[in-house]
């Protein structure tokens, strides 16, 4: 019966003291196990736990009793629980978010964590302050997602979406420019954003990291996708440009991109921008298929990409900003919890 007794404390190295007693040291969450001594593998402390107290430890006895020493906090014991076998050690639950270290936690479908002016986010004049959003915009049976946030640059979600699902369920994101006041794209000479994120790349995962940009009072959408797990290729009829290079200045490396045009029927046979509700999708890499690339950190010259769309007739000339965000579209996690984490984020506009 593996016991799962959560606690937060000093864990790192397990030392057998004899008489079925183990002591551990270095901060993390833990579980008790009576399966096999060989499975008593302990991990180092997760980054979220750093900065907490580091002058105590827990001791666990073979009957499941847990004892605290120093400033380790007592969170419970299995000493009064009937066991089928003796406890043989403690193991960390490193993948379990330590909610006590997060300033904002929400599992609500429309939950959000608002923040004030952020020095790492420029250009959102006239808009609401930045926030981090759950954005479960297409819920289905079996979905769950919890947002843990400290700032627009430091947050994560633990999501569980049904196995085999291929439609987007959630878009957790840093909502950097919120309903900005129709700022002309050309009012900035440069608009550059940098990111550092971590997402799962597992066989059961279907998700991708991306910016979601809106223009012209929510009429025109441009997505910029850069990190992929089981992302379906655009239909050949929607790929309208390959081998387009952006970067090489403003601290942005030169990279090749390709463009998909998802103009809805109301946009007419030519897709964007023949009508409203235009959706365009820049994808990292020269082409779809083998040409598609992924990166978890980098910088993007957003202004250059939007200028190209205007110049080539995919967006109206003199388009205006409405919103800018960065996060992940998540379809499936194979029905199990997976963590998507934003490690750093910034927008520079001048």
Strand order in the sheet with the most strands: 8-9-12-20-14-15-18-17-16
**Count of structural domains:** 2
Structural class estimated from helices and strands:
mainly beta
The CATH homologous superfamily of the largest domain corresponds to Glycoside hydrolase family 11/12, catalytic domain
Task: Characterize the structure shown.
With 350 residues, the protein is mostly beta strands. It folds into 2 domains: 9-92, no CATH class; 102-349, Glycoside hydrolase family 11/12, catalytic domain (Jelly Rolls, Sandwich), CATH 2.60.120. It contains 1 helix and 21 strands. The chain has one helix at 302-311; strands at 9-18, 21-28, 30-33, 56-60, 66-70, 89-92, 104-106, 112-114, 131-133, 144-151, 154-160, 173-177, 191-198, 205-215, 220-229, 239-246, 255-261, 278-284, 297-301, 321-333, 338-349. The protein has a 9-stranded mixed sheet with strand order 8-9-12-20-14-15-18-17-16, covered by helices on one side. A 6-stranded antiparallel sheet has the order 7-10-11-21-13-19. Strand 1 (9-18) and strand 2 form a beta hairpin. Residues 1-54, 92-99 and 265-270 have low confidence and may be disordered.
Explain the layout of strands and helices.
Elements: E1 9-18, E2 21-28, E3 30-33, E4 56-60, E5 66-70, E6 89-92, E7 104-106, E8 112-114, E9 131-133, E10 144-151, E11 154-160, E12 173-177, E13 191-198, E14 205-215, E15 220-229, E16 239-246, E17 255-261, E18 278-284, E19 297-301, H1 302-311, E20 321-333, E21 338-349
Parallel strand pairs: 15-18
Antiparallel strand pairs: 1-2, 2-4, 3-6, 4-5, 7-10, 8-9, 9-12, 10-11, 11-21, 12-20, 13-19, 13-21, 14-15, 14-20, 16-17, 17-18
């Amino acid at each position: 019966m593996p016991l799962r007794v959560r606690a937060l404390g000093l864990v790192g190295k397990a030392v057998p003291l004899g008489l079925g007693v183990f002591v551990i040291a270095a901060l993390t969450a833990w579980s008790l196990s009576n399966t096999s001594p060989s499975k008593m593998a302990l991990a180092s402390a997760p980054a979220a736990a750093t900065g907490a107290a580091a002058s105590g430890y827990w001791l666990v006895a073979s009957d499941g009793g847990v004892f605290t020493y120093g400033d380790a906090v007592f969170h419970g014991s299995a000493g009064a629980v009937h066991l089928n076998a003796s406890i043989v050690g403690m193991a960390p639950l490193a993948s379990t978010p330590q909610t006590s270290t997060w300033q904002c936690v929400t599992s609500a479908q429309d939950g959000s964590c608002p923040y004030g002016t952020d020095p790492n986010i420029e250009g959102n004049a006239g808009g609401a302050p930045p926030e981090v959003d759950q954005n479960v915009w297409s819920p289905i049976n079996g979905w769950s997602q919890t947002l843990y946030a400290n700032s627009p640059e430091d947050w994560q979600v633990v999501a569980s979406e049904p196995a085999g699902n291929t439609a987007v369920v959630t878009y957790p994101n840093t909502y950097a420019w919120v309903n900005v006041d129709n700022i002309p794209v050309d009012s900035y000479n440069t608009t550059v954003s940098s990111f550092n994120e971590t997402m799962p790349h597992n066989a059961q995962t279907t998700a991708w990291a991306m910016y979601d940009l809106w223009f012209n009072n929510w009429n025109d959408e441009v997505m910029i996708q850069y990190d992929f797990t089981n992302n379906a290729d655009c239909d050949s009829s929607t790929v309208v440009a390959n081998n387009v290079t952006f970067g090489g200045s403003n601290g942005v490396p030169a990279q090749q991109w390709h463009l998909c045009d998802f103009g809805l029927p109301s946009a007419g046979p030519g897709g964007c921008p023949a009508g409203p509700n235009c959706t365009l999708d820049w994808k990292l890499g020269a082409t779809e298929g083998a040409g598609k690339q992924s990166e978890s950190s980098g910088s993007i010259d957003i202004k250059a990409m939007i200028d190209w769309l205007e110049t080539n007739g995919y967006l109206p000339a003199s388009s205006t900003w409405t919103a800018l965000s960065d996060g992940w579209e998540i379809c499936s996690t194979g029905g199990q919890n997976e963590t998507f984490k934003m490690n750093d984020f910034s927008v520079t506009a001048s």
